[in-house]
Amino acid sequence: MLQTRYIPCLLLKDNGLVKTINFKNPNYVGDPINTVRIFNEKEVDELIFLDIDASPKHKEPNYKLIAEIADECFMPLAYGGGITHFEQAQKIYNIGVEKIAINTAAHKDLALITRIAEVYGNQAVIGIIDVKKNLFGKYQVVSNSANSKHDDKPEEWAKKLIEAGVGEILITSVDKEGTWSGLDVELTKKITSNVNVPVIAHGGAGSAEHIKEAITIGGASAVAMGSMVVYQKQGMGVLINFPDRKNLI
Amino acid sequence: MITIINYGMGNLGSVTNMLKKIGVPCKITSDINEIEQAKKIILPGVGAFDAAVSRIDELNLRPVLTYKAKEQKIPFLGICLGMQLLCEGSEEGVLKGLNFVSANTIKFKFDNGSDLKIPHMGWNFVKENTKSKLTEGFTDEYRFYFVHSYYVLCDKPENSILKTTHGVEFDSAIQHENVYGAQFHPEKSHKYGMHLLTNFSKI
């Protein structure tokens, strides 16, 4: 039987690895290449790297760093950040990355996803949906490191992304990200009950129990983890780690 | 030296990275003369069946691949779509496969209410069916990374060396004489994949 995927989601800024809280205050947590080597030893299912600087600063993806990461990565690898046109995606696939993740650019040019998926397949494109609750407590889709707001409901936007060609959705709760307080199960459920592609729940994972909720109640096919895999415990120092598979479902 | 066939449809970087890691020399080529000299071949592949067959025929690689696999009988490994290309054909397309193994490629089909998703994407287990040098030393704990919407079924049960279940039981690794196939991605499957590629390098 297919196993649930548990995926470290690692944030890049300049050449280093950082961790944020609610998408803010990036804290340096180490060197990406060393981190990949540790995750190799721990045999993690997959890795997602997101460059959090690329879109807001209109930067090109850091191909040199992505290549160094891919060289060391003996598990599937996804990269997101700053991809705005087809040629950039092509360059990243050629480096040896299996999946590219798109968020900000999709809001300006949904056809970009279609162009990429037609050549590399739906399985090679992840649609990222960042969601933040607005003043009235309603879910709002955001992008560009939560600096831009969009009108579509998260589940409506998910359907549009899938129609355009993404084979997977990474749903991130900005309000939960970095808080260790549990994933937004309600938000996850909203997406999984409306789509039939795999959904990766992200933002707030702090324990095996949280992860279980996102899968059993939220219907997620995979869970992405940030703080949990780069810090020893909440409020404590950096420790690249991965929960024992026996404790996960 | 392993020769990796480049016909524009595969994640060649990942395969060479893992071979480098396990210390096996390799080169990537689409040159017919170079392929003629090959001692061992890996045929990778990601994408659609007909697109891949068309690329192989555009590059005129079918005769040389057939000569190496069927006449010279050198060790030949197809990965993912590369394995499906070893078959007679596929439900995904209308073009003929390389036909090195009597097998066909079939689409996963599930009822509407099913929780099973297509593609079969993620880590899954393999079960030994027929003993093979490719899978020597594998245990029940071995798991591999899969991404595919079509699966292979061999005509002869002995050609199926590993089986995996995703709604239906299918052949996740196959062998006919010197020709091997792996539906999963060994190059993305940690030490399990390194073990398989090491076995292949020693055949």
Your description of this structure?
The complex is a heterodimer of chains A (249) and B (203). Chain A has 249 residues and is of the alpha/beta class. Helix content of chain A is 31%, strand content 26%. An eight-stranded parallel beta barrel of chain A has the order 1-4-5-6-7-10-11-12, surrounded by five helices. In chain A, helix 3 links the parallel strand 5 (77-80) and strand 6. The longest helix of chain A has 11 residues, at 154-164. Chain B has one domain: 3-Layer(aba) Sandwich (Rossmann fold). Chain B is built from six helices and 13 strands. In chain B, strands 2-1-3-4-13-12-11-8 form an eight-stranded mixed beta sheet. Chain B has a three-stranded mixed beta sheet with strand order 5-6-10, with no helix packed on it. In chain B, strand 12 and strand 13 form a beta hairpin. Chain A binds chain B through residues 1-5, 40, 43, 45-46, 70-71, 73-76, 93-96, 98, 120-124, 167-168, 196-198, 221-222, and chain B through 11-14, 17-18, 21, 46-48, 116-117, 119-125, 143, 145-147, 165-166, 185, 187-191, 193-194.
**Low-pLDDT runs of chain B:** none
Secondary structure: number of strands of chain B: 13
Shape of chain B: globular
Low-pLDDT segments, ≥5 res of chain A: none
* The CATH homologous superfamily of chain B: Class I glutamine amidotransferase (GATase) domain
Strand fraction of chain A: 25-35%
Specify the CATH architecture of chain A.
Alpha-Beta Barrel
| Tally of DSSP helical segments of chain B | 6
- Major sheet size, sense and barrel closure of chain A: 8 strands, parallel, barrel
Whole-number total of structural domains of chain A: 1
Order of helices and strands of chain A: EEEHEHEHEHHEEEHEHEHEH
Distance between the termini of chain A: 13 Å
Number of strands of chain A: 12
Please write the CATH class name of chain A: Alpha Beta
Mean pLDDT of chain A: 95
Instruction: Encode the helix/strand succession of chain B as letters.
Output: EHEHEHHEHEEEEEEEEEH
How big is the Rg of chain A?
16 Å
Regarding quaternary structure, how should these chains be classified? Answer: heterodimer
Helix/strand/pairing category of chain A: alpha/beta
